Amino acid sequence: MQFFNLAHAADPSAAIAAAATSATAQQGASVRFLAGGTTLVDLMKLGVELPDHVIDINHLGLDAIEREADGGLRVGATARNSDLAHHPVVRSDYAALSQAILAGASTQLRNAATTAGNLLQRTRCVYFRNVATPCNKREPGSGCPAIQGANRMLAILGTSEACIATNPSDMAVAMLAYDATVHVQGVSGDRQIPLAELHLPPGNRPDRETVLEPGDLITHVTMPPRPAGERSTYLKLRDRVSYEFALVSAAAAVSMADGVMTGACFALGGVGTRPWRVAEAERVLLGQAPGDEVFRRAAEIALQGARPQSQNGFKVELARRCIVAALARATR
Ligand SMILES: Cc1cc2nc3c(=O)[nH]c(=O)nc-3n(C[C@H](O)[C@H](O)[C@H](O)COP(=O)(O)OP(=O)(O)OC[C@H]3O[C@@H](n4cnc5c(N)ncnc54)[C@H](O)[C@@H]3O)c2cc1C
Ligand code: SF4
Question: Which of 114, 115, 143, 151 has the fewest beta carbons under 10 Å from its own?
Answer without folding.
Answer: 143
